[in-house]
User: Fold this.
Amino acid sequence: MQLLYSILLTFFGVLAISATKIYHCTEPNTIALTFDDGPYEYTMDLLDQLQAYDIHVTFFINGYNMWHDLETDPKKQAVLKRAAADGHQIASHTWKHLIPENKDEIVPMMNRLDDIIEKNVGYRPKYFRPPYGKCDPECAKYFESLGYHVIQWDTDTHDWDLSIGVDERVAEVKKFLTDQWAQKKENYLILMHDIHKSTVQSIIPWVLKHAPLDEYKFVTVAECLGNKKEGSSKSKSDSESSVRTSKIEDDDRSLPETDLVAGNNTIIDTTEGDVQNLDIDSSDAQKITYHFTFSIIFLAYILLMHL
Ligand SMILES: [Zn+2]
Assistant:
């Protein structure tokens, strides 16, 4: 009996720790295109193309990556304004494409980027993708405690890897996506990078022409998860007195965490600031209920062990 309890405890313990990162959309017949590491000089071109097809995507942006003066250059910030005005979601990919090892530096760094996003698009991001997708369960739980949904992907185009040659990569991505769409999966959470000319000028025109636009709805990550559209989160000043919420997702499926693109993993600025607090929408409430129920069961097992 003791062995059974131990097995159950281990099982639920692992479940409790790993049930954090989100790899998949939940809404059927949706495709969420995501673009990491920008904004950059090709992003405006991408916005023009997406607008022509009335498709909404998600940008996981950095504050200091390809552009070093996004924080101060209104012309570069105009890209964010345009993206949000077009209906795209702006999400966080960290300030410098890096999660600092010193935990004390994380919140100021996240806030520095969130401040830029809020200033330009009117909300603080609720969605976060770790650089290279590298964030262990403890890390994911920490970012959830800050109020972020931690987003991975289930369809990796590897568009960043141009080591095989630009033309070869473009051909590979076309082949890969053709195969993916032929599988007619329920939904797709696709990883790409708008910092590459080949992605914006060769891959995206092909995607828009050949994607199953009549079978799937192309939506933001928030929408493909059935959440309210970005823009509904509170401003920093509104939320400072609110109760901070910690949200846990119900997905523990694992995928290989392949690297995305080399960022500028250098020093981290430590501007003072508080992390945002977020309101809870209906799907969040469901998840919290689920985990509350799970916690009760888990506690029951612990009590049984001591009987
Ligand atoms: Zn990245």
Residues 36-37, 93, 97, 131, 260-261, 263 surround zinc ion (CB under 6 Å). Confidence is low (pLDDT under 50) at residues 231-294. The two ends are 12 Å apart (CA to CA). The chain has one domain: 2-305.
